[in-house]
Amino acid sequence: MASYIQAPPTAHPGAPSPVQATGRTINWGVVATGRIASTVVADLQSLGDSNVIAVSSRSEERARAFADKHEIDWAYGSYQAMFDEPEIEAVYIASPHGQHFEIAMAALKSGKHVVCEKSLTINAHEARALVAEARDNDLFLMEAVWSRFTPVFARAMEIIGSGELGVVSWVQADLGFKAEYDPNWRLFNPADGGGALLDLAVYPLTWALGTMGFPTSVQATADLNDDGVDLQTAITLGYTGIRHAQLMVTLNAAAPRMARVTCSNGWLSTNAPLHNPTKLFIHPANGPARTEVFEPVGNNYTYEFREATRCIQQGLNESPTMPWEDSVNTMAIFDGIRHQVGVRYPNDLARTR
Ligand SMILES: NC(=O)c1ccc[n+]([C@@H]2O[C@H](COP(=O)([O-])OP(=O)(O)OC[C@H]3O[C@@H](n4cnc5c(N)ncnc54)[C@H](OP(=O)(O)O)[C@@H]3O)[C@@H](O)[C@H]2O)c1
């Protein structure tokens, strides 16, 4: 019983450190100067074969400040100006999801390889269009679902795949926090793809996909705020056989942020947060429980950038660990959920014509 998500070579126990070079140096540019770009950039810079030479922002001032803080040489006051720079080979996009499509499309049309934050787009139509553009232009494109690339996730999939705990019966996974309402925050802004679903659900879903693959049915209920974004969404995935997943995402409560995989002969769970846990708790039904502990490398974004860098070096257009089909199918699941619960974004219509 293999796990559904294929672990990259660097995620296996005994693999070289993800910062170790795997080939020629790739020149990177960072798009946007917000919260996650600031957190992630040091991990990208730590790779022995990645050179972060530029950052771009909608504001020249913010680009300069980010460049100074993170010791990056070039700062651009527009994303396109950075895409026009021939020395930059790949870009990491860290804008809100509502802007991913336009920015990633512009980068691909400018001949850049793209690693784009999750959710890749706001709907499946946009995701398919990005994939087509990358394919047609022989470029690398990857949604930055960093959890998939970490050794802890690979190890969890290995334990499930070994059959030690028997057959997977259900997954319960949740993610969320209490977010104070701010109409200017991307989480509450429909134009940015706001709401718990697109911001958080990809991570609990990763545990269901890893252990059981894509579901045969999806049912959801949600509470929306007056702006029409989902504050809390409950998702039930159905599978053939006696298998289910229950996923919960919220902007309204201090959630446990853990995953639990229940099987015919025991269960496995994580500590918090489930998108980057450091511990696996393994509970065989007929044996002693045990805990496995994992040390992060940097902020643990190193693994996704190792994979992207390796793929670009090897001329791959997609990562076997985060294939295009998974991003498109994930967006299709989210489209279905949004249809069920009534979340609409202003740019949905324009981009699905
Ligand atoms: N992998 C992870 O662990 C993780 C964690 C958090 C978020 N994320 C993802 O990363 C993305 C960014 O999240 P974040 O928390 O960093 O957001 P953020 O703090 O709001 O930053 C987003 C940045 O995008 C740029 N931007 C471009 N168009 C924008 C617009 N119309 N409105 C606002 N900002 C715009 C801005 O940079 P400039 O003004 O410099 O252009 C802004 O600072 C989201 O897709 C999110 O899902 C991933």
Structure, described:
This protein is an alpha/beta fold and 353 residues long. It has 2 domains: 20-146, Rossmann fold (3-Layer(aba) Sandwich), CATH 3.40.50.720; 148-352, Dihydrodipicolinate Reductase, domain 2. 34% of the residues lie in helices and 23% in strands. It is built from 11 helices and 14 strands. It has helices at residues 35-46, 60-70, 79-83, 97-109, 124-136, 151-162, 196-200, 202-212, 302-313, 324-341, 346-352, and strands spanning 26-31, 50-56, 74-76, 90-93, 113-116, 141-143, 168-176, 217-224, 230-239, 243-250, 259-263, 266-270, 279-284, 290-293. The strands form 2 sheets. It has an 8-stranded mixed sheet with strand order 8-9-10-7-11-12-13-14. Strands 3-2-1-4-5-6 form a 6-stranded parallel sheet, with helices on both faces. Strand 8 (217-224) and strand 9 form a beta hairpin. The chain is globular. The chain starts with 25 loop residues before the first strand and ends with a helix. The model has no long low-confidence stretch (mean pLDDT 96). Bound molecules: NADP nicotinamide-adenine-dinucleotide phosphate. NADP nicotinamide-adenine-dinucleotide phosphate is lined by residues 32-37, 57-59, 62, 94-97, 99, 117-118, 144, 146, 186, 192, 199.
